[in-house]
Amino acid sequence: MLVVSGLILSITSLSYLSIKNKDIKKTFGVSSEIDKLYLKESLLNFYLDDIFEKSARDFNYVNGKRVFIDNFMRELENYKDKNGNYPIEELKQAESISEERLELSENKLILNLKLELKEVYVNNDESGVFTYNYEKRFEKVFK
After folding, report:
1. Which of 3, 31, 41, 80 has the most C-beta neighbours closer than 10 Å?
2. CA distance 139 to 54
3. Cα angle at 31 between 37 and 136, to 5 degrees?
C-alpha cells in the first residue's frame, strides 16, 4: 500500500510539473514579445524626438503648420534606407500626420502623435498579435 501510494504521488507530481512547465514556457514567450514592443517604443521615442527637434530647429510660428509638416516629412524621409524602408516599420505611420495633430501659438509648437505598434506572437501551438497604442506629445517652446 505504501509503494502504491508513493507511485501515485510520484506520477501526480510529475504530471503537475509537466503541465506547469508548458505554462512557464508560454509566459516567457509572451513576455519576450512584450519586451519587443517596449524596445520598439524606445526606438520610436529616439527617432521621433530627433525628427521633431530637427524639424522645429529653425521653425517660426508665423510660417504656419503646413511648413512644419513639410519640414517633418523631409526629416522623416532622411531615415529611409536605399530601399525605402525605415529602421522600424512603425515610423511609416508618422507620414500621415496632419494639421489637426499640431497646436501652434506664438510661444509654442506641440505635436501629438498616435501610432499603433504591433508584435506577432507565434508559438508551436499558439499565435496572436500584441497591440500597443503609442501616444506622445512633442513640444517646442519659442524664445
Report:
1. 41
2. 12
3. 25
What is the pTM for the complete model shown?
Answer: 0.75
Model confidence at 50, in pLDDT bands (50, 70, 90)? very high
Three-state SS sequence of the chain: CHHHHHHHHHHHHHHHHHHHHHHHHHHHHHHHHHHHHHHHHHHHHHHHHHHHHHHHCCCCHHHCHHHHHHHHHHHHHCCCCCCCCCCCHHHHHHHHCCHHHEEECCCEEEEEEEEEEEEEEECCCCEEEEEEEEEEEEEEECC
pLDDT at residue 116 in the model: 92
For cell 525605402, what's the residue? 84
pLDDT range class, residue 139, cuts 50, 70, 90 = very high
Of 116, 2, 134, 143, residue with least CA distance to 59: 143
* The three three-digit cell numbers of residue 113, written as one number: 502623435
